[in-house]
Design brief:
The protein is of the alpha/beta class. The chain has helices at residues 2-14, 154-163, 185-200, 267-284, 286-290, 311-319, and strands at 35-42, 49-67, 73-75, 86-93, 101-113, 120-133, 141-147, 171-174, 206-208, 236-240, 243-247, 293-297, 324-327, 334-336, 347-350, 355-362, 365-372, 377-384. The radius of gyration is 22 Å and the shape is globular. Bound molecules: fe (ii) ion. Fe (ii) ion (FE2) binds at residues 177, 211-213, 299, 329.
Amino acid sequence: MIRRALILSVAILAVAAPVLAQSEPYRVFDTRPVITEGPYLVATSETTVTIVWLTDTPSHAEVRYGPGSDLSMVAQPQLDGLVPVGTRHVVHLNKLLPGTSYSYEAVATRVVKLNAYWPDKGLDVRSGPHQFITFDRRSPSVSFSVVTDTHEDTGRINRLNQAIDWGSTDFLVHTGDAFHWIDTEEHLFRAWLRPTTAGLAHTKPLIYARGNHELRGPFARRLFDYVPVPEGRFYYARDAGPVHLIVLDTGEDKPDDTNVYAELNRTVPYRADELAWFREHVKTTARVSEAPFRVIVMHQPGWGWLVDGPDAWVETANEAAVDLVIAGHRHRFSYAPPGPDVDHSYHLLVVGQDQVARVDATTSELKVAVTSTDGSIVHTLVIPRR
Ligand SMILES: [Fe+2]
C-alpha cells in the first residue's frame, strides 16, 4: 500500500501538475488539499452544529449533509460576501431537526492562487461521511462526560479517552486549562485538540468552558476560532434531554492590573457583560425553569477573579435553581453539597485532573459518577428532581 502511494506520488510529480481538461473558465490544477485535523464537532444544539477542520493548503470549504444517510444538502460559508479561503475551515449547520441523526461530509477545494480575476483552483478532498445526532429537550435522558485541567499532558488525555464510555456518552465537556498557555495553532492541536478529537471520532461534540490558562500566551486571542459556536462567545446554553446546560467562562484568576499581564487583560467589562447575559438568560429563557435539571459547567469553582467578588453570580445561580455546578481548576476532587453551611443552593462538584465525571440524567434524577483513570470510583451522587 505504501509502495503504491509512493509510486503514485512520484507519478504525480513527474507530470508536473498539468492543468486538467475541464469545463470551468478558470484553471483547475491536479492537486488536492490534505485534511490535517478533524473534522470535529463543537457544541451541537437542537438545531445547529459547528464543524471544524484544517487543511494543509488554502482551500474553500463546504459541508454536505442530510438526515440519515442523505448527503444532498449543502452548507457553504461566506464572510462579508466572500467565500473564505484558508487552512482552517468552520461551517455552522443550522435549521437542523432536534434529536435527529445526520450524516455529513467535510469538503475542501484547493485554491492554488487567489488572483483578482481567474483564480487558479485545484481539486477537492472529502472527509467522511460521518454521523452526529442533534440534541433534543424532549428526549427522556442524556449522558455526558466531563474532563478538566488536562494541562498539555497528552498521555493523560489518552487515558481519559480510554476511561470514557463513548458508546453511551452524548457529548464531552472540557472545563478548561487544557494548556499552561497557548503558543501556536500547532500547539493547540498537539497538546489538546488532536488527542481530544481522536476520542470524539468525528461524531460526538465537544463543549468547552475556558480556563484561566487559556487567556495566556501569544495564541490565546485565536482560541475561539478553534472552538467556535454560533453565539460568537465562550458562554452560552444548550438543551440536551432533561438538562439545561449553561457554559460559563470564569476568566482569569488574578486582577487585570497584575503586573504579569502588562495591562493587556480587560476582564472586568468582559465578566460584567457575561453576568448581564447570565442574569438575562435565566430570567427570560422559559426552559431554565421548565427543564427537569439545570447544570452549569465552568472552570473555576469560585467563579474566577471578579472585581466585586462572586456574590452576584452565586445569587443568580441560586435564584435560577441551578442543581449542579461542575468545575475544575483545583486539580483535585472536591464536593460541596448545598446546605446551611454554604452560600449556594447547588451541588458543587470539582473534578480532579485524572478523573472523568459521568452524568446520566433522566427526567427524575441526575446521577453523577466520578472515576479515576486508574479505574477507582472517586465519588457518586444522585440528585433528585426538585
Ligand atoms: Fe485553572
